[in-house]
Write a structure and sequence with these properties.
Helix content is about 0%, strand content about 40%. It has a two-stranded antiparallel sheet with strand order 1-2.
Length: about 40
């Protein structure tokens, strides 16, 4: 599975970068969310 994280490369410029999500180990769970937000003010 591929996830994404936000990288702020410079002032006013943010990009999404992909990464491989590892499989959960024994006793762990993997959750997937469909939406999230980033607050510009906090």
């Amino acid at each position: 599975m591929t996830g994404h994280y936000i990288v702020f490369e410079s002032i006013g410029r943010a990009v999404l970068k992909p990464f491989d999500v590892p499989q959960p180990k024994a006793g762990e769970v993997l959750l997937e969310n469909e939406y999230t937000v980033v607050s510009a003010g906090t």
